[in-house]
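Bench log, entry 3. Co-assembly request; chain sequences pasted below exactly as received.
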Amino acid sequence: MKGKPSSWLIAGLVVLALVLPQFVTNKYYLNILIMSGIWSIVASSLNLVLGYTGQVNLAHGAFFGIGAYASALMMLKLQMNFWLALPLAAALAGFFGFLIGLPALRTKGSYFAIGTLCFNIIVTLIIDRWEGLTEGARGLMGIPGPAPIPVPGIGQIAFKTLAAQYYLVLGFLLLTLFVMRRILNSLVGRTFRAIRGNEELAEAVGIPARRVKILSFTTSCFFAGIGGVLYASYIGFLSPELTDYHVSFDSLVYIMIGGVGTMAGPILGTLLFVTIPETLHVAAEYRLFVYGLILILMIIYLPRGIVGGIGSLARKKPKGGA
Amino acid sequence: MNAILKAEGLSRFFGGLAAVMDLDFEVKAGEILSLIGPNGAGKTTVFNLITGALLPTRGRLQFFEKEITGLRPHDTAALGIARTFQTTSLFPDETVLDTLIVGFRCRTRMGVFDALLKTGRARGDEERSRRKAEETLAFIGLGDRASELAKNIPQEAQKRLAVGLALVTEPKLLLLDEPMGGLTEEENAGMMRLVQKIRGEGISILLIEHKMKVVMKISDRIVVLNYGRKIAEGTPGEVGRNPEVVEAYLGVGDAE
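Structure output for the full assembly:
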């Protein structure tokens, strides 16, 4: 119904994702899958506020960066365990989202987009210049990976192999999607969509729009922070560029291509965009140019992205067109 | 009868222009009060002031003897003031049923953690919202369109849905802004029956409507605005004979 994939399809995809490392043993491809997983978390979380609540947040790179840098600094400078740094850094990203959301979400539409873009630039500048804390342009090196989890009786789960890293990222991707699904399928999620559809009307039926937008924004930033932590501990190196607006725009492109306001869209978009340039070895300088071109074409011809397009086709078919 | 809504000296200026000026009026429990006047008389501004979409420059508003001046729309909605908009306003991509379900949100208490853990409160709230939405769906006579998208249903059905969305919030006072605008003669009658049915539920109604035939037939009382000021008030019979009202509507010396 309503063009939603059946639960069988979802279960099938999850099983496929779980057994994938059995078939993909090539390190190069596993690496691409892990990166796709991390960026899927970032894009999906952006989709919560952008696709489902209708607020064009262009600061997602900053919240990704806050999560990444915060966890890296906690582990490097405070010798904190990864499993403690992860929730703390994500919560910090969420908290910054809340603080920024308070004033920024008073504005609407393009004003909000521009405001968040400015915030992103400021965050990147601070990370770049505050050398005493962040090492500035030299970047942070030697960020530890996830600490092994002791399991009584068996030994421990270590995260030394790529397959183990893959499962770690997959686990957090599934957690992100699970949380989003629970929220979006509830009355709370309905208020998100109401604001996207018609904010004035939402207010008129008693939905405190600003509070709801802050909730959506904060949640979104929290998961962007998780993406950042996973990235930092997987790659082991961070530099200020990783927090800048390119990250925001990349996530935006993944969502727009895959399907804005759909669960599968951001993941599909991310898979396409992380996999194809990697395998085709497209020169990095042309990347943004190609992105821009594809984005313009998509917005004109397929405004709801690939998944949205398939969805509306599926809806139209039985009636023979709208 | 008791007044449920009371406006005293209500004024709103836009720059130097008074859209509403020193307006006093009351809505009594269970009545249909119509707000009429020529275009630009300030009727919709009065709605915006009551709901808090606009803040009054001067004056005060009381709802059930509680001060509501300065409250925002989501607060006044929670207190029991619902409205429709002049240009039929809906959530275009939601189905008819989903539109009504979210309208009940202001009567539920579940939060985001209830949603995550699917607590008993979440299940109860979801269940109550669905039940209330289905009830309202039947009440406005759109039961056969539950799964259609709001943007795809005919205009008359959209107007009903907009009224239904206001109703699902369980208001004590309903503000209807031209519910018959753009409807055919036949559809007017249907909408009028719906408005009377709503009053039958004990909900007071403040109505803006241009179709005088409808206004004269349906209203208990009428308040007439011209250039933001009240120029007359009374039963349809009284207002219809008031020379100032006739003049405002038809101009001096004109006869029908």
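The radius of gyration of chain B is 19 Å. Strands of chain B lie at 3-14, 17-28, 32-36, 58-63, 66-67, 81-83, 173-177, 204-208, 221-226, 229-234.
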